[in-house]
Amino acid sequence: MNQIHKTAIIHSNAELGDNISIGPYAILDEDVIIGDGTRIAEHAIIRPGARIGKDCSIFPGAIISEVSQDMKYKGERTETIIGDRTIIREYATVHKGTADRMKTVIGNDCMIMAYVHVAHDCLIGNGCIFSNATQLAGHVTVEDMVIIGGMSGVHQFVEIGAHSFVGGYMRISKDIPPYILAAGLPARYAGLNRVGLTRRGFSSEAMKALRDFYQIVYRSEYNISDALKFAEENLEMTPEVNHAMDFIRRSNRGII
After folding, report:
1. N or C: fewer beta carbons within 10 Å in the chain?
2. What is the rounded distance in angstroms from the CA atom of residue 135 to the CA atom of residue 91?
3. What does pTM read for this prediction?
């Protein structure tokens, strides 16, 4: 049974699942889909194109699927897709996609803290945590299980690899490879994300292989292409090392 406050404004075309809670003065526009068990708090605004999964929590003042701030956006019908069990905290903003990707995506089990901005055409994986006031520009890609510290800014088209940890108050203008710590101004490699990987069950062998790989990439005298070639010829190609190599090879902006 849904619990909808009498002051909430819900368009007749909005599709609501079961056991949904909608607080005072929340606004749900047309072309909105809300999954079972999701809670939408007071004064939250859900614009057209929002596809919100099951058991999510949208906190007061959050704005989901608003029109992008891209000057090239011409009103095309695009979406904002949010997975199951994701939390969007107070006054966070998530903008819909444009003709580039036609969607903005946030995966399952994410925590988007207060005042975070996720711009148009961002693709965010599962299990990510963005701390307060993190700002993602358009077209950013973030793989699974990434943590970004508070008040960090991420440049357009940057990619951040899985299981990486990005420190707070940082300016990210280049890609961050998977499994590492990024710290400093400008952002730099600060070692393997050993604590995060241990907590997530990565074996000591997997972490050693990654450490050896990144020692070659960041601590040797090789340039990036030569480092990758040397690593491929001399290291065990575990799934994690393969993932890191593929990420670096496809990087368009270059890595930190």
Report:
1. N
2. 13
3. 0.97
- pLDDT band of residue 175 (cuts 50, 70, 90) is very high
Assign residue 91 a region (left: φ > 0; alpha: ψ between -120 and 50; beta: otherwise).
left
Q: In terms of Cα–Cα distance, which of 80, 107, 108 is closest to 94?
A: 80
**Token digits for 151?**
């008040």
Encode pLDDT of 107-144 as tens digits.
Answer: 999 999 999 999 999 999 999 999 999 999 999 999 99
Helix H or strand E segment including 190:
strand 188-192
Q: Catalytic residue numbers? A: 120-121, 138
Residue 179, classified by CB atoms within 10 Å of its CB into exposed (0-12), middle (13-18) or buried (19+), is: buried
Q: Could you tell me if 22 and 5 are in contact, meaning their C-beta atoms sit under 8 angstroms apart? A: yes
The count of C-alpha atoms lying within 13 angstroms of the C-alpha of 110, restricted to the half-sphere facing its C-beta, is 30
Whether residue 1 is predicted with pLDDT greater than 90 in this model: the reply is no
The third-level CATH classification (topology) of the domain covering 198-250 is: Udp N-acetylglucosamine O-acyltransferase; Domain 2 (1.20.1180)
Residue spans of the domains in the chain: they are: 3-139, 198-250
Which structure tokens are listed for 19?
């056991």
Task: Decide if 3-139 and 198-250 have a common fold.
Answer: no
Average pLDDT over residues 54-82: 97
